[in-house]
Amino acid sequence: MRTVIFRFTIPYLTTLMVLFSIFVLLRGHNEPGGGFIGGLIAASAFAIYGIACGVAPVRRALYFHPMAIAASGLMMAVLSGVASLFVDAKFLTGLWAFPAILGGDVGLSTPLFFDIGVYLVVVGAISSIALALEERESD
Amino acid sequence: MEYAPRMTGIEATTGFLALALPFIAAALAPILTRLLKQHACWPLALAPALAFLFFLQALPTVADGNVLLFGFDWIPSFDVRFSFRIDGLSSTFALLITGIGTLIVLYSGGYLAGHKDQGRFFSFILMFMGAMLGLVVSDDLITLFVYWELTSITSFLLIGFDHHREAARRGAIQALVITGGGGLALLAGLIVIRELLGLSSMSDVLAAGDALRDSAFYVPILILVLAGAFTKSAQMPFHVWLPNAMEAPTPVSAYLHSATMVKAGVYLLLRFHPALGDTALWTTILPLFGSVTLVVGALLAIRASDIKITLAYTTVASLGLLVMLIGVGTEAAITGAVLYLIAHSLFKGGLFMVAGSIDHGAHTREIDHLGGLGRAMPITFTAAMLCALSMGGITPFVGFLAKEEIYAALEQGDPWHIALMVAAIAGNALMFAAAFVVALKPFVGRMPETIHHPHEGAPTIWLGPLTLGVLGLLGALFYGAYHDYFSSPMASAALGEPVAIEIGWVPHLNLAFMLSLLTIALGIMLYVFATRLRSGIANLLAAIGWGPDKGFDQAMRGLLRGAFAITGFLQSGRLDIYMTVTVILIIAALFGPMVYMDAFPAMPDFPTLAFYEWTVLGLVILGIFAVVIAKNRLTAIVSLGIQGFAVALIFMLLGAPDLSFTQFMVETLSVVILALVMTRLRLSAADHRPLRESLPDAVLAIAGGAGFGLFLLAVTQRPFDASLSDFFERYSYTIAHGRNIVNVILVDFRGIDTMGEIAVVMTAGLAILALIRVRVGRKGERYPDPTEQTP
After folding, report:
1. What distance in Å separates the CA atoms of residue B29 and residue B421, rounded to the nearest whole number?
2. pLDDT tens profile A22-81
């Protein structure tokens, strides 16, 4: 599998895929996409990077353990639900703000952070499984 | 009895605070102990001391026959409250718990000075204190049960405090299993009272009069409540955990096994006495269990050579005496029980602490190796004598008041009461002997050469027993106030009607006093022959050979064997069997309802398909075909992807881009991961199995597919209820600011579902990670046989 061409192109492909996954995540509220799909794309990006260049570089690039990323995502999702409790609304009620940034209205909301949480959980959990499997393969 | 209105505002807040204080102190204990070492006992003892003051200031109100109620709704939908009731019964108990608790915290400071886990010990014992305190003042039945269980759990922690010793672990587990089992029975009983009789609190139960006695559920309720009380209060044959609990450090025994934990069952019986008592069943079962426990416990106390074990068995005997008296249930019997309960808490708590001080000073608790300590430990000797005189029922000590009242209660003269009287005299005489074996023998006579430099402990160590001993004397001397504030209100609450106890320390020449003298004479005789008696009982027990303690071990071994056999049967450890069973169940779940309700879907008309639709359908079929005929495994896995992608295409054509998108990604990843797993499993490249093995799998696969197909057809043939999709369409943008309905549903409308799902994803990921990392052990050994190890 580890041909020169594969190893040479994959880092670029991975970069593009991760970028695309973030794009998919952020457009999700209005267009097809969202945290779950975005997470799957990013996870497959890391998986393929691991197949091409070995697991160690992926782990270095991720910096955190993938499970820690997943856990932080779960935490973020829960906290985005807790936020509404402080304004006397029920747990997980969506809160919205539309600050004008760079001349356009940007919708900032707790569901957005919730979706980012979903994204991180999916990325973390799936890539930790994939990476662990790839690691054993190379033993 | 007059009911005060519910306490509110500042009064109720103080009440809650008093109940929470021990828990707060428990949380602070480890930090304080790190900072102050053993001197942390002084600030920590403040918590029970303040709680004691709270109950003390409420005492005059309660002694007048008032009841203090406070609490709040806990789970309103189930009518569960977090509520408390302070009346004569709970007030005296609470004072004993917090008062002795204060002394015990101080005692632990000296006794465990320098122990590396002293902070943890403080924490455990304060937690237990909080639990016990909550238990005796609980009004709501569920609140009561929660505290009841907390005492079981914290006592487990305390008994197993020296967890590196197997005996301590065994004692802890035994106590937990027995008292926890009783706790479950109690829960069942309380639920019956709540759900079938609609009484949710102790106040309801007490106000209901004969409702419990007259109900059709009286017998089950009584048996369940008694199961809880008897296990906790160590009645035969559930008593085994109590002597084994002596593995705990001495402050635990002095506290849990004198005044508190073991009295919880007695408390429950006293509490329920007005509602459940005075029936034929009650007046038979309780005296029967109680008297047997009394006599056997007292005999075993003489048999023991370790003074702590001796005390444990006298506690068993005392609990038997209490249960017997509550069973007799007359006014005199209940007042006798109440007087004995208070007296016992004082003298037994003190004697346990004395036993600890002896251990501390002479480094042994074996009675044969003790003697002549009186000169070196005069304060401990004094405290021991004060407590022992009370335990022996000698005037002017509170124990004397109790014994006079007990004998007066039993002097009816019919055969049943004469039998109980004989049991009471025998038990009391044996306990008299045991008291002086523990409190006199170690201090007099010649000091054996095995003891080096016996010494008095720190003030914290002798303060507790001395205080309790002196209180036992003061209570009898000032018996008017003692009865007014403690025993009369307590007995009134347990009887359900006001009584005034009048017995004093000046003996009167009556039958009870003669019996007292007889008991003392017998006791002195038994004391003199104690050593010979001990070997006699030991021989007898050796001849019997089997006891409940052995029975417990046998039951636990049987439980482990049974669990092992069932697990071995259900968990074969072979993946193909798990898969087959799962698939068969799914097929049954799909076909079962359709066959049972004859709800097979109608055969739909075949739709006319456009060319590109035929192509996609062809792809699906091609994919399946490729999987089935694939020569090696990797090809088969990749071919699975063909079919998956074709399905994704169908979603796309039907206008569900989100679904299609996800299907593509899931399909890709599952092929990658499956391929990785397959290569890791080092299977042979191709799957060569004879037809008779692969045919059943094929049948199952086809049945599963057909089942899902039929199920989907049936679902789509039902009229479609569009109200939900209408709702989402209407509000997706207007209130959730999103045009992608699928996403809005996922992150907003049904966010909590998604939260659960991502938690599952995360947990599954962790589990898979652990499975990948696991090292496969020796071949043929699936998991170790638990029965081969010592539990």
Report:
1. 47
2. 999 988 888 888 899 999 999 999 999 998 888 999 999 999 999 999 999 999 999 998
Residue B2: what pLDDT? Answer: 41
Q: Name the one residue in this structure whose structure tokens are 């109980």.
A: B420
Backbone angles phi, psi at B474, to 5 degrees: -60, -40
Domain boundaries, chain B: 1-276, 294-528, 613-687
**A-to-B residue pairs, Cβ atoms closer than 8 angstroms:** 141
Q: Structure pTM?
A: 0.74
Q: Which of B93, B105, B113, B87 is nearest to B21 (CA)?
A: B105
CB B82 within 8 A of CB B143: yes
Q: Which residues of chain A have a CB within 8 Å of the CB of B738?
A: 29-30, 111
CB–CB of B433/B302 below 8 Å? Answer: yes
Distance CA(A130)–CA(A137), nearest Å, equals 11
The token pair at B224 is 């369940």
ipTM confidence score: 0.92
The three state secondary structure string of B740-783 is CHHHHHHHHHCHHHHHHHHHHHHHHHHHHHHHHHCCCCCCCCCC
- What are the C-alpha distances in Å from B130 to residues B30, B101, B269, B339, B650? 17, 10, 21, 24, 64
Q: What is the Cα–Cα distance from B225 to B200, expressed in whole angstroms?
A: 15
Q: Is B755–A31 a contact, with Cβ atoms under 8 angstroms apart?
A: no
- Contact between B545 and B538 under an 8 Å Cβ cutoff? The reply is no
| Domain span at A114 | 4-138
pLDDT digits (tens, 9 = 90+) for B462-486: 888 888 888 888 888 888 888 888 8
Q: How many domains does chain A have?
A: 1
Q: Is B525 within 8 Å of chain A by CB? A: no
Cis peptide before B454 (omega within 30 of 0): no
The pair of structure tokens assigned to B219 is: 């017998």
